[in-house]
């Protein structure tokens, strides 16, 4: 092809209308487009600009098929027809599955049928709905931790009509927060694939208010979303706004967001075949591990013979203390591991906070010096130094205005050091300064003075106006303050199988050495979801398998990595 192109001028290749040259022109365009698809599909482009990669891949594919269709003769277009049929079939199946995932029939109660004696049932209408309502998850926490900064949003989507396996991911679209943004997330739960009906009860409430048998299976999906930019940041802002409402759970529904889900995607190994599983994760990668644990718990609850797991080591590292996020993880971990621990499976969990401020120092400084409201204050500007303080005068009182000329002739006498001290003290005070009730101005008198003012007088006063630039508040670490609240209020009570460590990173080499001893013959899986931890775990597993190849160990180790963006 290169020899053929070298013999044809570029101008003739572009402008010629001959049939032979047109065939060559379409062929060159197809080759250039294939090269562009290969270059734009490298790993770096996919990770950093996935949306660009996705749109470019499909547009380039359609254009390539069009160029190839015009390049080859009519009798050789059968492979092109087959390719077009595959693309159309793929998109048709994806669209059909998308509709099935997001189209549900929901019952709506319309009220009581009739006001009859002994009739307490309401009429239900079956309506067709698109999308799934999003519920904000706010665990019950003690006083003091709800005000801390949380970078992770936990949401729940209930009664999903499809099933997903542990470790798979879904693509979520929130039209209200981003009309053109679709992001992949890994659920922290696994769909209920087992029939877990409660046994019939013969108690006094058999025909009363409490149901004795539930035939509906709860198929909830919990997503843990880290706030970065774009959709995830807007979701975190929406969560903060929703939490600021007065009693949001009582006054209105949990959330007005509607989510559309696409998937699930991905394929994972059979976790139940491994006797020992070591789970390593960071930040929101914990959702990948919790879904596996939920799957194993369902098998244990059903006494499934496929479950061979006897030991689970759970290691989670997070940068800062996030009480609500940690409370959700602890709740799911305890819930999903209860049946496993009851059946004799050894479950060990390590929670590591890597922030150095979270580490308890031997000689801890006085926490009173830590100002939790420092980010809300602004220092007094230098432009007001040397000017008299603002005074509100009563326009109907002539005596109040007699000294105005005298005051204007005097200079506001203060030394620079005194002014600086007053400014610094003012910046350190809270918004509501501690005064006695006698020193506070009377609000009723102030309102009366304003109401009695004449418009003609106030219209003669020129009020200077200026715009203050919005200052972006710097995010400060609250780990030290939260640790102080933890020791003071004792609101954190970890289960006995969870070990919490502060100010340190997990030692992957030590974790694998203790979980996989040299004399162990158990079938072991090491799964990791995290970038830095994943690299350390991959190196440690390579050394273990190298020792097994040199007959220094009794067995090797399987490895599974889930990448994080």
Plain-language structure description:
The structure is a single chain. By secondary structure, the protein is an alpha/beta fold. It has a domain at 2-76. The chain is 37% helix and 16% strand. The protein has 17 helices and 14 strands. The strands form 3 sheets. The protein has a 6-stranded antiparallel sheet with strand order 6-5-8-3-4-7, with helices on both faces. It has a 6-stranded parallel sheet with strand order 12-11-10-9-13-14, sandwiched between helices. A two-stranded antiparallel sheet has the order 1-2. Strand 9, helix 9 (286-301) and strand 10 form a beta-alpha-beta unit. Helix 3 runs antiparallel to helix 5 (50-71) and helix 9 packs parallel to helix 10 (323-342). This is Ferric-chelate reductase Frp1. Residues 133-271 form the FAD-binding FR-type domain. Belongs to the ferric reductase (FRE) family. GO terms for molecular function: ferric-chelate reductase activity. Keywords: Glycoprotein, Ion transport, Membrane, Oxidoreductase, Transmembrane, Transmembrane helix, Transport.
